[in-house]
Every structure is written in C-alpha cells, then in structure tokens.
Amino acid sequence: MATIAASSGSEPEKKGVAEWLAAAKEYVADLKAEMRRVTWPTRQQVQATTAVVIAAVFLFAAYFAAVDMLLGRAITKIFDSLAKR
Hints:
By secondary structure, the chain is mainly alpha-helical. It is built from 2 helices and no strands.
C-alpha cells in the first residue's frame, strides 16, 4: 500500500519544480535529437501521395453515392409494393 509522507515547508515543492524543469529540459533535448534523425519526404513524394489520397476520396465518394442511390431505389420499390396491397 502506498503512503504519502507528510512534510512541512516548501522544500518538497522546490524539489518537485526542479525535477519538472530537469525532465522538461531532457525531453526537449531528446526531441531535438530525434528530429535530427527524421527522414522527411521530398516535395514530389508529398505531391504523389496527396494525389493518391484525393483520387481515393473521390472514388469512394462515387462508389458510396451509387450504392446509396441503388439501395434507396430498392427500398422505395419495396415500400411501394407493400403499400399497394
């Protein structure tokens, strides 16, 4: 079972802030080191993948529009045939 030590004064607060600042500095240093290792795509790669994504979006939109239209017509025909009886 974890217990929290009760202490008076501002010493733990200063230690906590100092630890937080040290951790933040370490994080920023690690972040800078990691960003130096990143391999960024070229402009041509970005343009090509963007074109593929845009084309895929339009193809999926057309497919779902066609399916929606066909299902809508089928359901309307079913409802019309049931209502006439």
